[in-house]
Each structure stands twice: as structure tokens, then as C-alpha cells.
Write a structure and sequence with these properties.
With about 250 residues, this protein is an alpha+beta fold. The protein contains 5 helices and 14 strands.
């Protein structure tokens, strides 16, 4: 009997020494410069739950090419691993080939490549990066909740336009991006942890939102969830995720 007890204790001890399952927070490390000091623990936990519900950090990191249309105004293709982006703007017949990491690229306007003056080309490439910052945020914001300069606050549960209660997550920014004065409130489903609505405030001090829009119609693209073709007919449409695309897409008009 004594030997049986010793064996049982050994099994329990060995089990306790095994690898521990990582928490959602450990699976979703924050970017350098994320505002831990002014973010609260409940908000960070909620952000980690959202990332998990969207497919997880590993799946997001491995996702390579994302293509989408933005409000029927322009088409974008983004190579996440290299920073290369192709933007075709319909309204002004402009094609941008830009690397958002290096700032290098080419611009074609109405069939003619812009080569000089160099200052104008740089200005256009900076404009392309601004377009990507805006348009990509409308699509992949749930994966960027712990980015550099982001501050997260959990605002408790609240209703929205008579709909069921949501967990409300507030995002503000510190000296990052093109519009650090902005604020967002995200209305997160209590059960599945998916963002269902977002409210945009042009100034963080404002109490009234500039808009409140749905974040719905989630579909699986590759190994992640994305919200597109939304019920208000706004934002990203015709989304695709690819493992490979022709290199010429980012180098040739």
C-alpha cells in the first residue's frame, strides 16, 4: 500500500512539473511601447480575449497577403510580412506601390508614372501610407489593440440603441499615428468576445461620437476572422486572404 501511495505522489509531482498552458495574455504579447501604465487589467484581458476569438496571435502573425476594397473608392493589397502595399484609387486614377516600412515606392497617375519632382513623389507616397493606415484600421483593428502607444480602458457593460448589453472597451492613443487625438469605443459581445459595433470620436475629450457603425458579418479568411461587407454597406468589402501572390503586383503598374 505504501508503494502505491508513493507511486501516486510521484505521478502527481511529475504532472505538476509539466509545461503549463500559456495564458491568453502570454499568447498575445503587447508591442513595445504599449501603454501598460495607464491601461487597466480588465481592458487588457478583454483585448486578449478578442484576439483569441479572431483566430489568435499566431494565426494573425502568419497571415501574409490581405486584399480588400474600401467603400468602393479604392482597392488595396497588403503584404504583411514585407510591408509592401498596392493601392488603386478609382476616383483620381492613381496607383500607389509603396512599402509602408521603408517609405519607398512608385506612383502612377492616369497612366503616367510620377518621376519628378522628387518632393512631389515623396508627398504622394506619404499620402499612400496615410491611406493604408486609415483603410487597414477599418479591417484589422481588432488585431491592433495592444499596439505601440495604445491605452485601453474597460468601461463596464452598456447597451447600444436598445440592443443587448456589451462589454465596452475604450482606445486612446499617445503620440502615435497620424491622429493621436482620436478615441474609439468598442462594443464587444459578452459571450463570443467579438466586436459588434465601434464608435469613433474625433477628439478624445468628446462625449458624443462622430459615428457609431456595425462591425458584423464575420467570416473566416485563411485562419483568421474578419468583418467585411457589413450591414451598413460601409467599410471593407471583397476581402481575400492569400498565402501567395505574384511579386509583380507590388512592383509593376
Amino acid at each position: 500500500m505504501r508503494y502505491l501511495l508513493l507511486f501516486a505522489c510521484l505521478v502527481v509531482w511529475l504532472a505538476s512539473c509539466g509545461p503549463k498552458e500559456k495564458t491568453l495574455g502570454e499568447l498575445n504579447p503587447a508591442a513595445e511601447g504599449f501603454d501598460f501604465a495607464n491601461s487597466d487589467a480588465a481592458a487588457i484581458d478583454l483585448a486578449d480575449s478578442i484576439m483569441h476569438a479572431m483566430g489568435g496571435r499566431e494565426a494573425w502573425d502568419k497571415t501574409r497577403f490581405i486584399s480588400w476594397n474600401f467603400f468602393d473608392r479604392r482597392d488595396l493589397v497588403w503584404d504583411k510580412h514585407t510591408g509592401r502595399v498596392r493601392i488603386e484609387s478609382k476616383n483620381d486614377s492613381t496607383i500607389y506601390l509603396v512599402n509602408i516600412t521603408t517609405g519607398e515606392g512608385r506612383v502612377q497617375i492616369k497612366g503616367q508614372e510620377l518621376t519628378e519632382p522628387d518632393s512631389l513623389r515623396r508627398q504622394m507616397l506619404e499620402r499612400a501610407k496615410n491611406i493604408w493606415i486609415n483603410d487597414s484600421y477599418w479591417l484589422v483593428m481588432p488585431f491592433k489593440l495592444k499596439d505601440t502607444g495604445v491605452t485601453l480602458k474597460y468601461l463596464g457593460q452598456d447597451t447600444l440603441r436598445g440592443l443587448p448589453y456589451y462589454n465596452v472597451l475604450q482606445l486612446t492613443f499617445q503620440n502615435v499615428g497620424r491622429t493621436p487625438q482620436n478615441k474609439y469605443k468598442l462594443y464587444v459581445d459578452i459571450h463570443d468576445k467579438l466586436i459588434r459595433h465601434w464608435a469613433f470620436f474625433e477628439e478624445s475629450a468628446n462625449d458624443t461620437a462622430n459615428f457609431i457603425r456595425p462591425w458584423d458579418n464575420y467570416q473566416t479568411y485563411g485562419n483568421i476572422l474578419l468583418s467585411a461587407d457589413r450591414s451598413d454597406n460601409g467599410g471593407p468589402k471583397r476581402v481575400k486572404v492569400d498565402e501567395s501572390l505574384p511579386d509583380a503586383l507590388f512592383t509593376e503598374f
